[in-house]
Amino acid sequence: xxxxxxxxxxxxxxxxxxxxxxxxxKEQILNVGFIIEGESQSWALAFQKxxxxxxxxxxxxxxGRPHQVRxxxxxxxxxxxxxxxxxxxxxxxxxEPVVAIFGPNGNAASAQALRVSHKHGIPYMVTRWxxxxxxxxxxxNLHPPQSVIGHTLRRFVEEAEEWKQLGLIYxxxxxxxxxxxxxxxxxxxxxxxxxxxxxxxxxYVIKYFRTTMSQFRFVVDIPxxxxxxxxxxxxxxxxxxxxxxxxxxxxxxxxxIFL
Length: 259
Description:
The protein has helices at about 5-20, 40-60, 85-95, 105-120, 145-160, 180-185, 200-210, 225-235; strands at about 25-35, 70-80, 100, 125, 140, 165-170, 190-195, 215-220, 245-250, 255-259. By secondary structure, it is of the alpha/beta class. It has two domains: about 25-140, Response regulator (Rossmann fold), CATH 3.40.50.2300; about 145-250, Response regulator (Rossmann fold, 3-Layer(aba) Sandwich), CATH 3.40.50. Helix 4 links the parallel strand 3 (about 100) and strand 4 (about 125).
């Protein structure tokens, strides 16, 4: 999840809420609900940081005005895949009350939280991959389907960066599905090399591109944990000058890095 996107949505929610604020107090507190599956602390940290960023934006927007708005995150942790717990958590958040709910990752849990939010007209943010054909006008999908991401990546490298050729370094054959649009419609030349688990193969992949000088633009789809090794290798083979560009994608962790 991109924190800037979450902050932007918070900002929009607050602007909408301001239209209905009648309180004479100097500061309006708005609760935002989050339902988190499993024991991972990364989502909680991401939501906390997004809230802080949104509050900073709101403070700048409302500077000099008598009325201020501050967002307060309300976190609910549930067992992974527990649809009943998701329903209960959504109901508890409504009693706070909250101005919006960011749903859990799992399909079953998210569907139940979405149902509760729709019933009461509370804005609901889908935080998992996939299309949601039944989303209504109070729901937003923060994670569009992989086909959309792949299409956007192709347009970015072709139109924004004007790449005429690229090298695709990947780990998993099944993971190539997300690059379908890039592979099918990229107008330039693409050379693909698989990043095998064998350390020696890793060196051969980098050495090939350095020796042939065939590509200077790369999309690198390898696990985040292996990126440091990759960076060490391209540094060893002097492939870090201003002539080289790399886009690192790790769809499992749902983020991309551009160098």
